[in-house]
Design goal:
Layout: E1 7-9, H1 18-24, E2 27-32, E3 37-42, E4 45-50, E5 53-60, H2 65-72, E6 75-80, H3 86-94, H4 102-106, E7 110-112, E8 118-120, E9 125-136, H5 145-151, E10 160-171
Antiparallel strand pairs: 1-10, 2-3, 2-6, 4-5, 5-10, 6-9, 7-8, 9-10
Length: 172
């Protein structure tokens, strides 16, 4: 990835405010192959330390087109961008890859990591993640009903949580 002007870092060396990065700046969750990939904007997730590994956790609804790409692969990437790419992230959060070619419409340039996971050259931070655990959220497991009532109606499917090891991290 040196030829893309990235340098590898220890994920613990990420200096940005992680809550701001995810909640306010958003990220793209991307999975797939060289033949077919999809990406979606997300702002629910986090980073931390679990099972003696540096990890991320992200939430994806089964109804999202990206869901099957994540299910089919061993891993995915999380990419973070400067504010000038906000329109691209907005498009990736409002349009479905079932109906359009998000990569073409955003003008983002995909590349593939050493493990073969898709990411984008415009990103300022790339996290290459290998899935460790996944589980479907369940209505009867909410100890506090407020998030359930606020974010889900009875028709909506609940998110699936993915916990993934950060295999490599790169910054510009």
């Amino acid at each position: 990835m040196e030829d893309l002007n990235y340098r590898q870092i220890d994920p613990a060396a990420i200096n940005d405010n992680l809550i701001r990065l995810i909640a306010s700046d958003w990220m793209l969750v991307t999975a797939g192959t060289r033949e077919k990939l999809n990406t979606m904007t997300a702002n629910w997730g986090g980073m931390g330390y679990l099972w003696n590994k540096q990890v991320v956790f992200v939430f994806v609804r089964p109804e999202r087109y990206t869901y099957q790409f994540i299910e089919d692969e061993e891993g995915f990437t999380l990419t973070f961008f400067d504010s000038k790419y906000r329109d691209a992230l907005n498009l990736c959060g409002t349009k479905s890859g079932r109906d359009c070619d998000k990569v073409k419409e955003t003008g983002l340039t995909p590349f593939f990591t050493e493990l073969g996971y898709p990411a984008f050259t415009e990103a300022c931070l790339v996290l290459e993640c290998r899935k460790l655990y996944a589980d479907q959220l369940r209505r009867d497991h909410f100890l506090d009903q407020e998030p359930l009532k606020r974010h889900y109606n009875t028709r909506d499917g609940l998110h699936k949580i993915y916990i993934a090891e950060i295999v490599k991290a790169w910054i510009r």
